[in-house]
Fold NADH-dependent flavin reductase.
Amino acid sequence: MDDRAFRNAMGQFVTGVTVITTNVGDETHGMTANAFLSVSLNPKLVLVSIGEKAKMLQKIKDAGHYAVNFLAEDQQEISMLFAGQIKDGRSVDFEWLNGMPVIPGAIGRVTCQVVNEYVVGDHTFFVGEVTGIELNDGAPLIYFQGKYRELASMNENETLLI
């Protein structure tokens, strides 16, 4: 199987869009990622997967902490900026949660202290113990088949069948 077939298959899985942020000294760094998952309730652990070629890999190693920002449906441009798809010198005025930079307007923001890291294939998994949570109203930005999407909302009279 070739890389393209694998990527196409993985694209069939709907994911949320996050921006992972950290700070090293006085510098703030961020990258768009959809490789994020909740690991454990007790202790509260989450995981992000960072590619071996990503600049963010060494930044998280150096910092020992990171924040996960769950983007809202109107934050596609923020995702594109941190994915390196917009390169026109724009900047983000970060907010701060537990001493870590977070994205304004994100529907969820979680700060984490790195407790483990694992090299798996061409990525490193950073397991973080959650140190702070902040939630905001809004719908998520999602990604499916290589495109940004919005979650279709149900009105209050609809019934979701499971």
Observations:
- The domain at 3-150 is CATH 2.30.110.10 (Pnp Oxidase; Chain A).
- The mean pLDDT is 90.
- The two ends are 34 Å apart (CA to CA).
- The chain is about 15% helix and 45% strand.
